[in-house]
Fold this sequence. Notes:
The chain has helices at residues 13-22, 67-81; strands spanning 2-8, 29-35, 42-46, 49-53, 56-65, 89-95. The chain is α+β, with helices and mostly antiparallel strands.
Amino acid sequence: MKKIEAIIKPFKLDDVREALSEIGITGMTATEVRGFGRQKGHTELYRGAEYVVDFLPKIKIEIVVSEEQAERCVEVITNAARTGKIGDGKIFVTSVERVIRIRTGEEDADAI
């Protein structure tokens, strides 16, 4: 099994969710996060004072899928989240050793 974590622009969340749904992904976790990379921050003006916004709002999506689905999920997320501008985000793919569904005790592929 693989865990896919994607950091994307907030306005792309619905596009990514719909694209994943179309390929049969039925569950995901989305969290509002803040961060920066090469995009860095930007300067804003508030009540006449200038200040730097270092951490930009992003969405972190987490899904766990079978190894067979992982590459397709990465492609779908990449295509749905891409704007072609700096700050589109990153995708991280890691191995998952074990998954347990708390309610039933099912494990691994049965628990996804």
